[in-house]
Amino acid sequence: MPDFSYSARAAKDSKIRTGKITAANKSEAKAFLKKRGLRIVALSAARKSQLLEGEIPIIGEFLIKDEKANYKFILGSQDPKPRDLIIFTKQLATMVGSGVPLIQSLGILQKQQPSRGFRRALRDILQTVENGSTYSSSLTLYPHIFDSLYIAMVEAGEASGNLDIILKKLVTYIEKAEKIKSQVKSALAYPVIVLCIAILVVSGLLKFVVPVFAKQFAETGRKLPGLTQMVVDFSDFFQEYWYYIFGGMGLFLWLFTQWKNTVSGRMIFDKYILKAPIIGDVLKKIAVGRFCSTMASMLSSGVNLLQALSICAASAGNKVIETFVINVKSGLEKGQNFSTPLSEGDLFPMMVISMVEVGESTGSLDEMLTKVAELYEEEVDLAVKTMLSMIEPIMIVFIGGIVSFVVIAMYLPVFDMAGGVE
After folding, report:
1. Which one, of 363, 362, 365, 361, lies nearest residue 373 by Cα?
2. pTM
3. In this structure, are residues 376 and 288 in contact, taking their beta carbons and an 8 Å threshold?
């Protein structure tokens, strides 16, 4: 069980007392202190040591000496990567399935983790399990490593006595989830990268190329065409105030990020990103595939439908989809079939809804959702490749158009002078 640090005033002498107590949760800690006649001033989870076995602090916990007498700087949280979680879950499933006790398995795996943050987390989880807590409740100590879906499936595995089978399903799910994340990154990153390249190319032209032409034109004393004069003026402005321009762009991005992190901003952004040309269709397919994969994994593990929908909504990654899933859950709570609220809106195609209806009627909803997830996995792969193949020529034409515009503007006076000579 977790430790809590407290500061409380005694009823007898009104003196402040501080200390640590162990309790299942904060409410239980409060009740325990009140029974002892203490009036709580402050109560918070006790900070756990960042040091591992064999490590000696040199400067606080920032510079340490490990068990091999090597000095190390500890910077950041050093949280595990998804790959670390996949390997750990796979190894734990193998050991538990082979009959190795859970505590012994955790002890062995904790020592061989490459990530300090993961070793520290497993150390605390192991101690909590040794103190009598279930494995699933111990995982709640580190929600940033083990999300609600992971914990719910482990809890279902403990209840059914099939923890090793559930852990294997978790490995498959996490691998698919990571693949989906990489597809989303590919879909969003490519246009951004090309846009950044376009900005750098235009900046280079305005900073280094246009001034050379402008100097030569000035020596001739001729009046420049309107298009050329506009580019030269903008080049002069850019050279004089380039730091304001880039500073303004940075400020705009910061303000946009702050707005997007608000509830209303995130809702508006997520709504229109799903309607965006080309990329919106890809993100919808990714969302449907993720929903079906997540639901199939949890339902086949024994997690009840309503709990699965709650977890699915929380892990949607898009406020519009999250609201939609919450509405689906509300429909189920009112007695509707699962397929009925899914048909409301344009997120789920009729093919998916029809397969869900068949799954409900035959009692094999998890199997149907698995088939849909597999189908959409292939569709998403194809959609991402198609999107990238469409965006690439569009971006090339975009950059080429900008460069061509500047080049033509610079050569217009040359053409005029050539015409005058004739």
Report:
1. 365
2. 0.65
3. yes
